[in-house]
Amino acid sequence: MIPRRRDPIGLYLHIPFCDGKCPYCDFYSLPAGSRTMDDYCGRLISELFLWGEKCPRFVDTLYFGGGTPSLLTPAQAARLIRAAGPVPGAEITLEANPEAVTPERLAAFRRAGVNRLSLGIQTARDDSLARLGRRHTAAQSRRALGMAVQAGFTDISGDLMLALPAYTMAELDETIALL
Predict the structure, then answer these.
(1) What is d(CA 88, CA 67) in angstroms, rounded to the nearest whole number?
(2) What's the CA dihedral at 132, 163, 62, 31 to 10 degrees?
(3) What's the whole-model pTM score?
(4) Taking burial as the number of CB atoms within 10 A of a residue's CB, which of 1, 34, 97, 149 is the most buried?
């Protein structure tokens, strides 16, 4: 069934680029590179326009997930948002890793239309982060959360990993407290 114009949908855009592959990750991903990312964004935009002509949509949720969507430039994110055509007030989420954000980039993503940030915090313990192959520390997670608030994000979530080797309720409590 083709959705009617008023039927809201959530749209997930997989951005398969990473600075490096985490050992636990099963997502399809490619090394980050400007030319490859530009080509991918151009093709994704073409597909969004093609799909939009065949199937009118009412996008009320747009989610940039995958590898590390915050590796996009804010201009690329803005082009993808325009191509997806979200309704006014739509939730537009971007996943980001704590070590890869700066106040300037976060503010630029806000200007591009992103209004929700999902930080890949995973855990508040540095030893667990190291075992996961993550490139950030708990201190970087704290700083990233502060930068997000400073950039104007009022809707922020954090990805957490549970049931890691040697995981305890104390680690969960520390991670929740970090958030």
Answers:
(1) 27
(2) 20
(3) 0.90
(4) 97
